[in-house]
Structures are given as C-alpha cells and as structure tokens.
Amino acid sequence: MRKGNGGDGGVIINISSLAGLMPAAFQPVYCATKHGVIGFTRSIALAANMENYGVRLNTICPGFVNTPILQSIDKEENMGQYYSYKDEIKNMMRFYGVMDPSRIAEGLITIIEDDTLNGEVMKITASQGIHFQQYSQTPFTSKR
Asked: Rounded to whole angstroms, how far apart are CA atoms 18 and 9?
C-alpha cells in the first residue's frame, strides 16, 4: 500500500468507540483497548504523513448501534460482574441514541472520499451525528 514500496497509497480506517474517548467503569478493558486504537492510529498517521507514505489513517468512534449485542446488557450471563451497571448503560443509550448501521457507512464514505483527513477521530452518534474529536495541535514533529 505504501507508495515507497511500490503501492498506490490508500486509506486505513480503524474502528474504535466512544468508549475510547472517555472512561467507562462498566467496561474497563474494552475502554482501554479502544483508547489504544485511537492513540495507535493517530501516531501511525503522523508517521505516514512525515514519511510521505501516501497512506491516510483515521479512526471512527461509533456510539450505540442497533445490533444484537445491545440486547446483551439485560442478561447477567453476558455482562458478568458489570451487570450492575446496566441502568447506567441504558442511560447512556438514551443520551447518545441508538443508530442504524447505515450511519456508520456514511462516516466511512466521508473518510474515504476526503483526501484531507489523516489522523482524524470521527465520532458518530444518533444524537449528535457525524463530527470530529477536537485535539490541540501536535506540539512537534520530527524532521528526518
């Protein structure tokens, strides 16, 4: 994929979650891995830009999506020790809303088609739509 290796360049989109942008007491491991996806993607995107790989890397962070997994929060055997948090999860679902998977597809298309997007973190929720996480400017970059 990398132009320096004979590839044509391209776009890599990693999937994280809103849980990658905030703490989630009822999902600490899930939350930590989603934070990791964001940090990894933003770091590699910076390297790809500095080295002119011709590859863009971005992350999408969907909120709650209408899939069968949402039904699992009412089942103690699925939630284990975090079952006691089911009411908090339901409150978050009401706050952010539950969206159709087609909304995620809209975000993916935006990232694929907009060549200016690299290292971005797109948030997608039913209540706030498609928007980007705001970060302060990277304080420094390497000039190799």
From this structure: 28
Coarse DSSP helix, strand, coil percentages of the chain, rounded to the nearest 5 percent: 50, 20, 35
The catalytically annotated residue of 30, 53, 83, 85 is 30
User: For 52-79, how does the pLDDT look when each residue is reduced to its tens digit (9 = 90+)?
Assistant: 889 999 999 999 999 888 888 888 888 7
Please report where in the chains the tokens 């709650």 appear, as a residue: 64
Contact (CB, 8 A) for 125 and 96: yes
- Known active-site residue 30: yes
Q: How far apart are CA 144 and CA 51, in angstroms?
A: 8
Length of the chain: 144
The residue type found at 12 is I
Inter-residue contact 56 to 117 (CB < 8 Å): yes
Q: Is the dihedral angle over the CA atoms 124, 66, 11, 111 positive or is it negative?
A: negative
